[in-house]
Design goal:
With 424 residues, this protein is α/β, with parallel strands linked by helices. It folds into 2 domains: 247 residues, Spore Coat Polysaccharide Biosynthesis Protein SpsA, Chain A, CATH 3.90.550.10; 153 residues, 2-C-methyl-D-erythritol 2,4-cyclodiphosphate synthase (60s Ribosomal Protein L30, Chain: A, 2-Layer Sandwich), CATH 3.30.1330.50. It contains 13 helices and 20 strands. The strands form 7 sheets. Strands 7-6-3-8-13 form a 5-stranded mixed sheet, sandwiched between helices. A 4-stranded mixed sheet has the order 15-20-18-19. A 3-stranded mixed sheet has the order 12-9-14. The longest helix is centred in the first third of the chain and has 14 residues. The protein is elongated, with a radius of gyration of 24 Å. The N terminus is likely disordered. It binds cytidine-5'-triphosphate and magnesium ion. Cytidine-5'-triphosphate binds next to helix 3.
């Protein structure tokens, strides 16, 4: 039982923060997509493009500083999305406002790096289905070579050079051509210097590696992935939506070892579901703690711990999904260390156990049953608080039971929870 309280290893993080940073540029307006809102905030298969883009970053093995670069009027929304996606790693998150061009947005991101960062990855939010393995390949090559690193794919179309009247002048030998993607990795100091030197050419550079190479530094390619295509037009968005909703399409698309782009997959045993139920009676005195929030003025719930039936049912659902027992077997109600403990303590420990067992939480769905407290006004707040603890979306529905049963008589509350988890 003591193991749950051991601090997690974070060897790569010095006092100055992580050694690797990922700048995700998401400040474009998405003109060619034409959705009427900035591209990164367009919904794809139920989540924003930005949320999809962040998922692989949070699957990385090593801790990274994450810098989100977004339009000025989207900072609050990006912070919520980033914190929710980051879960317990949200203290490594910074959100900054972008510039007129992509490269100006990158520059603003560079200005937000913490002192300890040695290697910086720059990634387009628009490449929302980029596999985690692609990030890892790039990070590994950057560490091994000390060079700039870009993921790249061979060009499959035949490339022609044409004149101003669209008449073909010549066919270009494509064997030496590569189409490059993101994330692109660079030694931090050299990239910052390259941007400084190229200050007057920022608007015309099409990628970061071009500026970096112009400053005289070597750049090497690693294998890219078809799944890392950039969502630019409505056709791209439809393709991304289909890949996210049809697992078979994702696997065929991503290729062996890269098939983590969608939220679902057909690999047996990789996706698991769990259920949890908890009931607590109202107490005579004390403060109410429910769904990760304090509720001043509301009647408290009784229990050995804080009585947070929602948090406890989530813990059971998570442990059930992973086959790790239940809250009683893991924490023991007779253990004095857990007397009065907050639901968040159990939740964090359960999520840590899951991660140690190789699982990530995909989502959690809660049904709260009871007359009080009136839940709707604080639902979003509760979803956000629990989402941050769990590191995945948590949705909460609340209902009464039409005056029937113990919840209808106002004797207590019940929470029923399902959880979906995925093997990393
Ligand atoms: N980007 C940015 N700041 C800008 C322009 C682009 O952060 N001023 C980001 C986009 O959000 C995107 C990436 O750079 O993640 C690649 O740009 P692109 O695909 O061109 O996106 P948009 O500029 O949004 O699209 P469009 O050119 O169609 O307007
Ligand atoms: Mg653009």
């Amino acid at each position: 039982m003591a193991a749950i309280y051991e601090p997690s290893a974070a060897a790569e993080t010095s006092l100055d923060g992580p050694a690797v940073a990922v700048i995700v540029v998401a400040a474009g307006s998405g003109t060619r997509l034409g959705a009427g809102i900035p591209k990164a905030f367009v919904s794809l298969a139920g989540s924003t493009v930005l949320e999809h883009a962040l998922a692989p970053v949070f699957r990385l093995r090593e801790p990274v500083q994450l810098v989100l670069v977004v339009p000025a009027d989207r900072v609050g929304e990006a912070e919520t999305i980033g914190r929710r996606a980051a879960g317990r790693g949200s203290d490594h998150l910074r959100v900054v406002v972008g510039g007129e061009t992509r490269q100006e947005s990158v520059l603003n991101g560079l200005a937000a790096l913490w002192p300890g960062v040695r290697t910086v990855l720059v990634h387009d939010a628009a490449r929302a289905l980029t596999p985690t393995a692609q990030f890892e390949r790039v990070i590994e090559a950057a560490a091994r070579t000390g060079w700039g690193v870009v993921p790249a794919l061979p060009v499959t179309d035949t490339i022609k050079q044409v004149d101003a009247s669209a008449v073909v002048e010549r066919t270009i030998d494509r064997t030496e051509l590569r189409a490059v993607q993101t994330p692109q990795a660079f030694p931090r100091d050299a990239l910052v210097a390259a941007f400084r030197v190229a200050a007057d050419r920022l608007a015309t550079a099409t990628d970061d590696a071009a500026l970096y190479a112009d400053a005289g530094h070597p750049v090497v390619t690693v294998e890219g992935s078809e799944a890392a295509f950039k969502i630019t037009t409505p056709w791209d968005a439809q393709r991304a939506e289909r890949l996210l909703t049809e697992p078979a399409a994702t696997e065929a698309h991503a290729g062996a070892g890269d098939a983590d782009t969608g939220s679902t997959t057909t690999q047996p045993g990789r996706i698991r579901t769990g259920i949890g139920i908890d009931v607590h009676a109202f107490a005579e005195e004390g403060e109410l703690h429910l769904a990760g929030l304090s509720w001043p003025g509301e009647r408290a719930l009784a229990g050995h711990s804080d009585g947070d039936a929602v948090a406890h049912a989530i813990v059971d659902a998570l442990l059930s999904a992973a086959g790790l027992g239940d809250i009683g077997s893991m924490f023991g109600t007779d253990d004095p260390r857990f007397a009065g403990a907050r639901g968040s303590v159990f939740l964090e420990a359960a999520v840590e156990r899951l991660r140690a067992a190789g699982y990530e939480v995909v989502n959690v769905a809660v049904q709260l049953v009871g007359n009080r407290p009136r839940f709707a006004p604080r639902r979003l707040e509760a979803e956000s608080a629990l989402g941050a603890l769990v590191g995945a979306p948590v949705s909460i529905a609340a209902t009464t039971t039409d005056a029937l049963g113990f919840t209808g008589r106002g004797e207590g509350v019940a929470a029923v929870v399902t959880a979906l988890i995925e093997r990393r």
